[in-house]
């Protein structure tokens, strides 16, 4: 039976030109090397070398077999290097902070995939507000956090993007607008308002403030997006929400884009001040690979 030593011996003979020097290279006796080469030729049923003046010269078929043996040994070395590089990933913990929507919708399938690829790495996820994510990152109490609209210079793994949309009762006067026209933020903030936060400081109130506006009449403030949609159906007021939070069943609701879109993106950002751990690098690389 042929084993790895046979193939190493084959390549060593081709490189050194003699069985004696090949035996020294692979750590065998000369008789053992001669026997290994003979076994290889017997198993293959072809002559790989001819012996002339104490030299071992490859035959035509021998040259082809030697070429394939080199590829096989190089592939084996690559496998060893991959295994060596992955040893740091066999164990580890990633502390991750996220605001509720992403933690409930985007992260679970990604973390299941990561667990499949790296079963020895534990991911500890904390549900906090977007402001708390930044505070935890600044204090380096977490390894990474999901950040809203991260600055371009931050090394981030994009998770998703959407835009803010207006949600109105189906019979509302503004609901007569078409999708192309949309609704102006200045008009929207004058309406009775259901303020939905999703557990984040970035919400309709902060977006209005960024535009130099204010919500004129907040009838109720809720954390859950689903609660806001129920209240809008009951005609308590209008609301402004990220597009990805919209329910599948929209009976009684009218969804309109803003006439001047407000985009939103969220990404996984590592804590600054130190290089990401091998485990965190693996997670970010998985995100980049899609």
From TrEMBL:
Record flagged with keyword DNA-binding: yes
Keywords: DNA-binding, Transcription, Transcription regulation
Domain of life: Bacteria
Organism (species): Pseudomonas chlororaphis
GO CC annotation terms, alphabetical: cytosol
Record-annotated membrane-spanning stretches: none
A GO term, aspect molecular function: DNA-binding transcription factor activity
Signal peptide, first to last residue: none
Segments forming domain HTH lysR-type: 2-59
Family note: Belongs to the LysR transcriptional regulatory family.
Name assigned to this protein: LysR family transcriptional regulator
């Amino acid at each position: 039976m042929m084993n790895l030593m046979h193939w190493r011996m084959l390549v060593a003979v081709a490189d050194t030109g003699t069985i004696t020097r090949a035996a020294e290279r692979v750590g065998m006796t000369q008789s053992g090397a001669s026997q290994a080469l003979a076994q290889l030729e017997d198993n293959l049923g072809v002559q790989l070398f001819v012996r002339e003046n104490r030299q071992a010269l490859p035959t035509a078929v021998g040259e082809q077999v030697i070429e394939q043996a080199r590829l096989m040994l190089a592939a084996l070395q690559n496998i060893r290097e991959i295994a060596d590089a992955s040893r740091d990933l066999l164990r580890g913990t990633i502390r991750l902070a996220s605001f509720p929507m992403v933690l409930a919708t985007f992260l679970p399938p990604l973390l299941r995939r990561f667990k499949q690829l790296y079963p020895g790495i534990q991911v500890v996820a904390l549900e906090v507000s977007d402001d708390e994510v930044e505070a935890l990152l600044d204090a380096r109490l977490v390894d990474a956090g999901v950040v809203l609209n991260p600055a371009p210079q931050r090394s981030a793994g994009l998770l998703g993007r959407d835009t803010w949309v207006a949600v109105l009762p189906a019979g509302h006067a503004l609901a007569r607008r078409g999708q192309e026209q949309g609704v102006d933020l200045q008009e929207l903030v004058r309406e009775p308002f259901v303020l939905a936060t999703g557990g984040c400081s970035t919400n309709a109130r902060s977006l209005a403030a960024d535009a130099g506006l204010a919500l004129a009449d907040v009838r109720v403030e809720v954390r859950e997006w689903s609660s806001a949609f129920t209240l809008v159906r009951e005609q308590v007021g209008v609301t402004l929400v990220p597009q990805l939070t919209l329910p599948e069943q929209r009976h009684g609701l009218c969804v309109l884009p803003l006439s001047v879109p407000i985009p939103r993106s969220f990404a996984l950002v590592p804590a600054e001040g130190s290089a990401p751990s091998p485990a965190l690098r693996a997670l970010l690389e998985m995100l980049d690979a899609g």
